[in-house]
Amino acid sequence: MTKTSDKFRENAQNCLQLAEGATNAQAARRYKRMARAWSALAAEQDWLDGYPTQNDRASELAGDAIDGLRDKDASAADAKAQKPPRGGTS
Q1: Is 36:63 a contact under the CB 8 Å cutoff?
Q2: Which of 10, 45, 72, 88 could form an SS bridge with 5, CB 3.0 to 4.6 Å?
Q3: Gap between the Cα atoms of 90 and 59, Å rounded
Q4: Tens place of pLDDT per residue across the chain (90 aa)
Q5: Residue 22 and residue 31: Cα distance in Å, rounded?
């Protein structure tokens, strides 16, 4: 049986693929935010289901990977505005 969190991670991966193929920067940013949200939901679902998680480290690595896909056309201020604070809630 497939875990719900695995389905969420698959959705995150699909969003990243859509971001790579997006035709404009705004759409790419939205897909990347959606990928980050799906990844967070997956980690939360693992916790709710009682699976051992490396939530903080996994979320950090996923966020860094997604940030690495940042649009070259985005300004530094725009990129900083898109990045949620670590360790807090957005």
Answers
A1: yes
A2: 45
A3: 14
A4: 889 999 999 999 999 999 999 999 999 999 999 999 999 999 999 989 888 766 555 666 677 677 776 666 565 555 555 555 555 544
A5: 8
What pTM value is reported for the model? 0.60
Distances (CA, A) of 64 to 1, 3, 58: 30, 24, 10
What contacts 45, CB < 8 A, 6 or more positions away?
Answer: 3, 4, 5, 8
Tell me the one-letter amino acid at 89: T
- Tell me which amino acid residue 69 is: L
